[in-house]
Structure formats: C-alpha cells, structure tokens
Amino acid sequence: MRSIRSLVAVSAACAVAFGAVGPASAAPRDAAASAAKTQNIVGTAAAAGKFDTLVSLVKEAGLAKTLKQDGPFTVFAPTDAAFAKVPKATLDELAGNRAKLRSVLLYHVAKGRLTAAKVVKRRSINTLNGQRLRVRLRDTKVFVGGARVI
Q1: What is the rounded end-to-end Cα distance, in angstroms, of the chain?
Q2: DSSP assignments along 20-54, one per residue
Q3: Which of 32, 49, 72, 147 can pair with 15 through a Cys bridge, CB separation 3.0 to 4.6 Å?
Q4: What are the CB-based long-range contacts (under 8 Å, 24+) for 37-43?
Q5: pLDDT at 42
Q6: CA-CA distance, 111 to 75, in Å (whole number)?
Q7: Which of 53, 81, 65 is nearest to 45 (CA)?
Q8: Nearest Cα to 119, choosing from 97, 146, 100, 143?
C-alpha cells in the first residue's frame, strides 16, 4: 500500500486540471479547450499528447466509459512526466489490482465543473474515491492535494 501512496503523491505532483465533460459555455481558448468542447474528457486527455499513461490506465481500470458519459467531471490529471517518476513495480502492482487502480485514479477526479475561480475559493475538494483533496494558495499558485495545478 505504501507504493500506491507514493504513486498518488508523485502523480499529483504534475497535475493539470481538465475541465468538465459536457457542453461548453464559453468560446475555446486553446486546442485543449476546443477538444473539450467536442470530445469527452478521455478524448481530450488523449488529444493533448502528454497524458498517454493516464489514458491507458483509465482504460485498463474500466473507467473510460464512466468518464465519457456520467459527467461533468474535473480531473486533476497527472502528466506522463509525473508517471515517469513512479517506480515500474508500483505501476505493475496497480495493473494487477483493478480495484486499487480505480481507487487511485478516482482520487484524481471530482464531480462537477470546477473552474479555477471555484477551486481557489475552496479549502478542499471531494474526490470520486471518497477522499478529500486539500486546496491551498501560495502566492499566485494553486495546490490541490499538495500538487501544483497548471
């Protein structure tokens, strides 16, 4: 279990917040926002090109369908660079235990559309695995669960 906690800590260290699945209410500002308008959150992550490990694990855990349909969600998405810091043995352990993998992945997902303006007003965020992520502001930077949100 210790290795799973290290995955959460390391993967969260490079979190990027993805917007929610569902109709977009504002004009897209960049390619990722444009993709989010026409795709689901899994498709948006895949199109971004820096979340390949996350997308693969989401599919392996059987969460792709859930994240495509039941939104809106906000995903604090670990990048491939974050996953590169996780020991291979930890990733292998998760791959062999679907329940643990789902729990770790759902730790990075919140129900609803949490914009930056909403996140900075909170002290914590409930995740879909039942745990809470602490929100902190340091200078002009936002940290969720100890990870800086980009």
Answers
A1: 28
A2: -SS---S---SHHHHHHHHS-HHHHHHHHSS-HHH
A3: 147
A4: 40/67, 40/68, 40/69, 40/71, 41/67, 41/68, 41/71, 41/73, 41/75, 42/67, 42/68, 43/68
A5: 87
A6: 9
A7: 53
A8: 143
In this structure, of 31-35, 60-64, 130-134, the range with the lowest mean pLDDT score is 31-35
pTM of the full predicted structure?
A: 0.74
Residue 12: phi, psi to the nearest 5? Answer: -70, -20
User: pLDDT digit string (tens) for 2-29?
Assistant: 445 445 544 444 455 555 444 333 334 4
pLDDT tens track for 70-102:
678 899 998 999 899 999 999 889 889 999 999
Residue 42, Cβ density class (10 Å: 0-12 exposed, 13-18 middle, ≥19 buried): buried
- 3-class secondary structure, 62: coil
